[in-house]
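INFO  loader      accepted 1 record
INFO  loader      residues=195
INFO  predictor   begin
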Amino acid sequence: MDWLRELLKQAGWEDAKIDAFIGDVNKELPKHFVPKSQYNELSETRKKLEKDVADRDKQIDDLGKTAGLSEDLKQQIETLKTENQTAKTQYESDLKEVKISNAITAALTGKVHNEKVVTGLIDKTKLVLGDDGKIVGLDEQLTGLKTSDAYLFKSDDQEQQQQQQPGIRVGAGRTEPPAGGQLSLGDAIAAQLTK
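INFO  predictor   done
INFO  writer      dumping tokens
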């Protein structure tokens, strides 16, 4: 919500009014919006289900063509059952991997110097996906990494600096010309732009 806070400051709102407004937004936002990670999971699920339906339709068509051959039909049905069970298991495994990856990304965003490096240090085999969708074991691994490899994590000061918008502020800090009376080209342009 730092982006919203900055926009409101630029619009001239007072800090107390901004805090109250953002508090209200934080209460109402979950009622009307889906988190990006949850959207990504549902999108991946939808794509997988559409592919599965198309595969099953093709299987049914193939079965219709061979309906007269009872032994072949039984064998094909057994083969398809096995393939479908394997596909279901693979799908559940892939979905679990996506959920775990999204949880790791959400936990690391803005808190580490290099997300890929820290993600590589996390042992995903020790993470358990709970029925409520929460990842068990992630906080313990992150705490261990903060202790053993603290240099990978940003300090609170660095996180605050990252939240401030970097960039050039035209005319920032200049209110009068230098003592010699001449402005540099950059200062002259900045002075013209601020008029």
